[in-house]
Amino acid sequence: MLPGVQEQVGAGVTRIVAPNGGMMTGPGTNTYVLGKLQKTVIDPGPLSDEHVQAILQVTGDRLRHILVTHTHRDHSPAAKVLADMTGAELVGLPPPDAPLQDMGFVPDRQPQHDELLSFGETGIRAIHTPGHASNHCCYLDTYSGLLFSGDHINQGSTVVIIPPDGCMTQYLGSLHLLKGYGIQGIAPGHGSLIEKPADAIDRLIRHRMARESRVLKAVEKYPGLTLEEMTARVYTDVSSTLHDLAKHSMLAHLLKLRDDGEVVQSEDKGWVLKA
């Protein structure tokens, strides 16, 4: 997966990887181009002249719609530039007041949950999937059953949940929600196509629940630890160099357990089991 390379990943679907590879983005953000007579772009990626030109090479003068799954800065900033250049309609939910957001994204159209969007010969169902971000939507190609999952599901890794905008309870709920849509494949925001979507979703749910169990046992065994200390106890299977990132998901698990009535947080004792 190399930046700027056009690759057919499905019937009428082209993937272009943005030149922003790294620890959080893997090979880079995946941009998808759909349609023939009318082109639709999903997640145009970061603000990169090189990437914008690569997208325009595929769309030519036929770009009509630009969809964003969410407004983290590796997914949406190029949207406004492309819209200004082509007049394409911007589709997505506005950015929440939270860190890491592209506050310059102003949608022309805000899809409703489960709304069927008709773009020329392309039919897309918008599915609101909060969890990684409160304004996150997945887009399901109703013809092929291919789900464009943004950062809700990525290939080869789990996603970081950063409270307060990120929410573990919502994330798990959104994973369960997707199981009812008859998904045939997943085109993630980062990484390669996922060909067994049901297995991938179940694997993520199992992973998160196993992690939650470890968090609960850590609170029971080591009450009162700081978030950083607890992360080191729970994320022993993750390199310590990633613990600064893992502590966000750790907090998300703790907040879910608090909402479930399992743990409480006190100013003097930290996180402890609820009496």
Description:
- By secondary structure, the chain is an alpha+beta fold.
- It has two domains: 190 residues, Ribonuclease Z/Hydroxyacylglutathione hydrolase-like (Metallo-beta-lactamase, Chain A, 4-Layer Sandwich); 68 residues, Winged helix-like DNA-binding domain superfamily/Winged helix DNA-binding domain (Arc Repressor Mutant, subunit A).
- Helices cover 29% and strands 22% of the residues.
- The chain contains six helices and 13 strands.
- Helix 3 links the parallel strand 10 and strand 11.
- The longest helix has 25 residues.
- The termini are far apart.
- The mean pLDDT is 94.
Low-confidence stretches: none
CATH superfamily of the largest domain: Ribonuclease Z/Hydroxyacylglutathione hydrolase-like
> Any idea what the CATH architecture of the largest domain is?
4-Layer Sandwich
User: Class of the largest domain in CATH?
Assistant: Alpha Beta
Search tags:
275 residues, alpha+beta, Metallo-beta-lactamase, Chain A, Arc Repressor Mutant, subunit A, 2 domains, six-stranded mixed sheet, 6 helices, 13 strands
In short, what is this structure?
By secondary structure, this protein is α+β, with helices and mostly antiparallel strands. The chain has 6 helices and 13 strands.
Any chance you could write out the topology, listing elements then pairs?
Layout: E1 6-10, E2 13-17, E3 30-34, E4 39-42, H1 49-59, E5 63-67, H2 78-86, E6 89-91, E7 116-119, E8 122-128, E9 137-141, E10 146-150, H3 168-178, E11 185-188, H4 197-221, H5 227-234, H6 243-259, E12 263-266, E13 270-273
Parallel strand pairs: 4-5, 5-6, 10-11
Antiparallel strand pairs: 1-2, 2-3, 3-4, 7-8, 8-9, 9-10, 12-13
Helix pairs in contact: 3-4, 4-6, 5-6
